[in-house]
């Protein structure tokens, strides 16, 4: 679909206000039952880096902002500078831990994909979705949908410790599957 058609969809503002041109979609927040378990998943399995943590003792919760960066050296070292930096970045993940939920037997949070439906999923792009899925399989990450499941064979969904779904895709098309080679047929000599 051409961009012009997307911009002409019903409900789309023809010309957003000029001040919005400098807005940045900064972060998505999800609540997690056990911060340590979630930090392990998001850093070890998906490669996120925690860049800022704030403990709100009086309100009994902690937040941690995480980013995907290829070079940790680009992250400011000073805590206050790093806080300003992370709040200006696109695509940040905020984990919010309400103190005490880690003692509950299972997550008290709704993942949005059972009734009543709401929040759907996070998404992480990877350079090679097949290689990423093989790695997740080796790490015993639970899958909601494998590449081979269903009609959308170019995406997979994994689940985090709180059962949130994470879509895994690669931005480039997957190569077309190679047809299986036909077995070589050796002609039988005629009977004499």
Question: Helix-strand pattern, N to C?
Answer: HEHEEHEEHEEE
Tell me the span between the first and last alpha carbons: 66 Å
Which sheet architecture does the biggest sheet show? 4 strands, mixed
Low-confidence stretches: none
Query: How do the strands line up in the largest sheet?
Result: 1-4-3-2
Number of helices: 4
Overall 3D geometry? extended
Please summarize what this structure is.
This protein has 192 residues and is of the alpha/beta class. The chain has helices at 3-7, 35-45, 79-86, 129-138, and strands spanning 27-32, 49-56, 61-67, 92-98, 121-125, 143-145, 155-159, 165-169. Strands 1-4-3-2 form a four-stranded mixed beta sheet, sandwiched between helices.
Describe what you observe in this structure.
The protein is an alpha/beta fold. It has a 4-stranded mixed β-sheet, with helices on both faces. Strands 5-8-7-6 form a 4-stranded mixed β-sheet, covered by helices on one side. The mean pLDDT is 93. It has helices at residues 3-7, 35-45, 79-86, 129-138; strands at residues 27-32, 49-56, 61-67, 92-98, 121-125, 143-145, 155-159, 165-169.
Q: What are the defining features of this structure?
A:
four-stranded mixed β-sheet; 192 residues; alpha/beta; 4 helices
List the helices and strands and how they pair.
Elements: H1 3-7, E1 27-32, H2 35-45, E2 49-56, E3 61-67, H3 79-86, E4 92-98, E5 121-125, H4 129-138, E6 143-145, E7 155-159, E8 165-169
Parallel strand pairs: 1-4, 5-8
Antiparallel strand pairs: 2-3, 3-4, 6-7, 7-8
